[in-house]
Specification:
The protein is α/β, with parallel strands linked by helices and 63 residues long. Helix content is 37%, strand content 19%. The protein has a single domain, classed as Response regulator (Rossmann fold). A 3-stranded parallel β-sheet has the order 2-1-3, with helices on both faces. Strand 1, helix 1 and strand 2 form a beta-alpha-beta unit. The radius of gyration is 11 Å and the shape is globular.
C-alpha cells in the first residue's frame, strides 16, 4: 500500500518540487491547491498532510 500525502501550498513551484520528490519514492501525492484540500481530505483519507503554515486563507480539517 502506498503512502498517501495530502499537499497544500499556495506556491505552484513548491508543490511541484515536493510532488516530484515524493513520486520518485513511490509516494502518492493528492491535492495541490487550497480549494481542493478539504474535498480530497474527506475522499482520499491521506496518511500525512503537508501544509504551508502561512497559507493564505484558512481551512479547518475535521474528522
Amino acid at each position: 500500500m502506498a503512502i498517501r500525502v495530502l499537499l497544500a501550498d499556495d506556491h505552484a513551484l513548491v508543490r511541484e518540487g515536493i510532488e516530484r520528490i515524493f513520486e520518485s519514492h513511490a509516494i502518492e501525492v493528492i491535492g495541490h491547491d487550497l480549494e481542493s484540500v478539504l474535498t480530497l481530505y474527506k475522499q482520499k483519507k491521506p496518511h500525512v498532510i503537508i501544509m504551508d503554515i502561512s497559507i493564505r486563507g484558512s481551512i479547518e480539517l475535521k474528522h
